[in-house]
Amino acid sequence: METERVNCLIIGSGPAGYTAAIYAGRANLSPVLYEGMQPGGQLTITTDVENFPGYPEGISGPQMMDDMRRQAERFGADLRYGVVTAADLSRAPYRLTIDEEKVIEAHAVIIATGATAKYLGLEDEKKYAGMGVSACATCDGFFYRKKVVAVVGGGDTACEEATYLSGLAAKVYLIVRKPYLRASRIMQERVMNNEKIEVLFEHNAVGLFGDNGVEGVHLVKRMGEPDEERYDVAIDGFFLAIGHKPNSDVFKPYVKTDEVGYIITEGATPCTGIPGVFAAGDVADPHYRQAITAAASGCKAAVEAERYLMEQGLKQ
Ligand code: NDP
Questions:
Q1: CA 7, CA 180: separation in Å to the nearest integer?
Q2: What is the pTM of this model?
Q3: Minimum CA distance residue for ligand 1 atom 23
Q4: Residue 180's domain spans which residues?
Q5: CA 77, CA 63: separation in Å to the nearest integer?
Q6: Do 132 and 215 have their domain in common?
């Protein structure tokens, strides 16, 4: 298989990956970045980003990612299409296989592969993507001021998103498939005591409808039971909060992960415990998952990579 040796390899093209590329490029690390399955990452599927400092008028997610990409290119980052399909992090230089056809040997590796929001798998989720369906209340909640929204899920994320949305929307339905919430007690109490949130226990969303974006959701109560009920509820926004899947599978044999698969780093650093291997952004962040926090950790990872390469005498 074709093999190429690089100094600093960055895997992933969200805010963490591109920020790492900007810093690594400016530090003369000749970074090579593979963009992965979804160039630009999760922000390319959101609408406007209004909470990233520096954009007083807001900016569209795709535009922001394109700007970051061009900024990384300006400082010499070598940005490439390709997906890491296998990894050997057992010893340096680390070996990463790209698209099952090429091996990159890297002295330093920054894993910034992100996390993917889980969806229910309904056709309508795709049909109304960006037109009323969202997996991020902090990103998109603002567009539903004084409107009616539904949040699916019964964990901490769902409760947090429902509570957040209740500060903006006129009404929030929380659609929970079980007869109870899985969230921590404090989050449950917050939801149950909130007049704007109506919890629909034992409900499943099975479809969406609307001519011009989402106008309602098809619900089934006690699905599969003899007393099953089907009815529709009018909503303007449909938020998924049924968990995220961190994109860490190929690295799992080498790095520590939590039970969900998030890479565990050392304290507030991006260090994975493997010398020269760093993790940044959502793949290592079960808590904040914001563009700005991802960008910050990408910066930290590049700074650590530079330090490591200097210590090893590998910085040209
Ligand atoms: P969780 O896995 O904890 O919860 C997922 C929820 O989605 C569950 O209620 C689950 O239902 C439901 N769900 C999953 N699949 C489906 C489906 N196909 N249809 C309908 N419902 C579905 O994920 P979270 O993202 O909420 O939390 C992840 C971790 O992050 C947790 O450890 C959580 O505690 C933590 N967290 C902490 C926060 C905080 O402390 N402030 C904030 C956010 C997250 P069921 O219960 O039936 O399986």
A1: 51
A2: 0.78
A3: 243
A4: 119-240
A5: 19
A6: yes
